[in-house]
Specification:
Elements: H1 24-28, H2 48-61, H3 82-89, H4 91-94, H5 106-123, E1 127-129, H6 135-152, E2 161-165, H7 171-178, E3 182-186, H8 196-202, E4 207-213, H9 225-234, E5 238-243, H10 255-258, E6 262-265, H11 267-270, E7 285-287, E8 299-303, E9 306-310, H12 327-363, E10 379-382, H13 390-399, E11 406-407, E12 416-419, H14 427-446, H15 448-452, H16 465-470
Parallel strand pairs: 2-3, 2-4, 4-5, 5-6
Antiparallel strand pairs: 1-7, 6-7, 8-9, 10-12, 11-12
The chain binds pyridoxal-5'-phosphate.
Pyridoxal-5'-phosphate (PLP) binds near residues 74 and 242.
């Protein structure tokens, strides 16, 4: 891999800087001696065209939602209107300092308050915090709320278990365990839904709550959802709904009406901020009446046409994020809500569900579909039965110009390929993706080695992905052999 240091030559410059207005020594005198560099920094010495070509080349090696279809189930990247990026970049938003006094940020507080009101309406729940910075952070906040609620009722010592269907998202059990709850798995039945008999057995006086991914990671909506929440409440537990998959039913159903006590949004999935890539996200949490006193501080309250921060909430779990959370993600979310409205949201969920079912039905003659029933926004295929592994199928898709779907998740499907097409792809793209997967299944039978060595046309071949995570090399060491 060529770095910027491999380009250019000594003395080349990408910018013409003005000459110093004062003698160098005079300027240096302002910097304490201990803070001054002893050697010149080793900066790349390149001309402007070399610089631009280097980074343009790197950007072309990347695959993103702006280059092609990105059917990564669960962590979906979908089209996010560029207008919202422009709005978030407006200096009045991007340049706001989080320490400005309340009276100078009334507009920003109004924006946050309004977003919170919309989200409460979408969830059908009376309380909200916008602070959490991601879905998993929302889950952690939700678990802390359950803990504080139980503490307040003197039940923390006895209610120690969180029930988790084995079709839940992976972050759910991690969040419950981080707060100290014991995680108890509830198996799925042959329909890919919660096994109701197993649930009834698991529910008892030691249960703090149940965490449901809705729809679950098979893309299936729990048909017994009302019975599940009724039983959990009857047993004295609370119901947590993971709302990262809200794009499957937004505008059509509300978690509050289904019995949710806690619900997290992934604004960076449902509400216009690209998911993934480590960028900022937001995981607001909506709650039922009983949990409102425990929500994080500060709360944004409206008094007439003014907004203020309320800190005097003695039962609050405290802060879960500095300042107000990831504000610019919220700017984009509000823009999305105002642009689409109820009718637009109904179109989003209809489009997401239609696209997923179209692919499922087109592909079921070629790949196994272990839970082959009407799905919501995503579905899961299995590569089982082919003479290659699912990893090989995923790598071969890169040669066909597609980002691979999520693989080996959910864990309850062997050789899983979890596909989420989203609502924004035209039929020709969905068709081309199907044709690629059908072609790959044929290649797998006739020339399996072709898949096992794929990708053939990508900038890099098979990577040791585990090593890249465990031993990341993130900077250039000038004096090492790799320099
Ligand atoms: C169903 C579900 N729950 C939770 C999460 C966690 O969200 P985050 O990645 O923002 O922490 C995801 C992530 O994609 C998800 O798909």
């Amino acid at each position: 891999m060529t770095t910027i240091y491999d380009r250019g030559a000594p003395g080349r410059q990408a910018a013409a800087l003005p000459s110093l207005a004062r003698p160098e020594q005079e300027i240096l005198a302002y910097i304490p001696a201990g803070l001054r560099r002893r050697e010149r920094p080793r900066l790349p010495e390149v001309s402007q065209p070399e610089l631009v070509r280097h980074y343009t080349h790197l950007s072309r090696l990347n695959y993103g939602v702006d280059t092609g279809f990105y059917p990564l189930g669960s962590c979906t990247m979908k089209h996010n209107p560029k207008l919202h990026e422009d709005l978030a970049r407006l200096p009045a938003f991007a340049g706001l300092h989080p320490l400005l006094p309340e009276e100078e940020v009334q507009g920003a507080l109004a924006l946050l308050w309004e977003l919170g009101e919309y989200l409460k309406g979408i969830a059908g729940m009376p309380g909200i915090t916008l602070q959490p910075a991601a879905g998993a952070h929302g889950e952690l906040t939700g678990m802390l709320l359950i803990k504080r609620y139980l503490e307040d009722r003197g039940e923390l010592g006895t209610r120690t278990k969180i029930l988790l269907p084995d079709s839940a998202h992976g972050t759910n059990p991690a969040s419950a365990a981080m707060v100290g709850f014991q995680v108890v798995a509830v198996p799925s039945d042959g329909r890919g839904m919660v096994d109701m008999a197993a649930l009834r057995t698991a529910l008892g006086k030691d249960v703090a709550g149940i965490m449901l991914t809705v729809p679950n990671t098979l893309g299936i909506f729990e048909e017994d959802i009302l019975e599940i929440t009724r039983l959990a409440h009857e047993a004295g537990g609370l119901c947590y709904f993971d709302g990262a998959n809200l794009n499957a039913y937004i505008g059509r159903a509300r978690p509050g009406d289904m019995g949710a006590d806690i619900f997290h949004f992934n604004l960076h999935k449902t509400f216009s901020t690209p998911h993934g890539g480590g960028g900022p996200g937001a995981g607001p949490v909506a709650v039922s009446e009983a949990l409102v006193p425990y929500l994080p501080v500060p709360e944004i309250v409206r008094e007439g046409d003014r907004f203020r921060l309320r800190w005097d909430k003695p039962k609050s779990i405290g802060r879960v994020h500095p300042y107000f959370g990831n504000f610019l993600v919220m700017v984009k979310a509000l823009a999305y809500i105002l642009t689409l409205g109820d009718e637009g949201f109904r179109e989003v969920s209809a489009g997401a569900v239609l696209a997923a079912n179209y692919l499922r039905v087109r592909l079921r003659g070629t790949y196994k579909v272990p839970y082959d029933r009407l799905c919501k926004h995503e579905f899961v295929l299995s590569g089982e039965g082919l003479p290659v592994r699912t990893l090989d199928i995923a790598k071969r898709l890169i040669d066909y110009g597609f980002h691979p779907p999520t693989i080996y998740f959910p864990l309850i499907v062997k050789e899983a390929l979890m596909i989420e097409p989203t609502e924004t792809e035209p039929k020709e793209v969905l068709d081309a993706f199907c044709e690629a997967l059908v072609g790959i299944a044929g290649e797998a039978r006739e020339r399996p080695e072709l898949l096992q060595r794929a990708p053939h046309n990508a900038p890099v071949r098979r990577l040791d992905e585990a090593r890249a995570v465990r031993e990341p090399v993130l900077r250039l060491l000038f004096d090492s052999p790799q320099a």
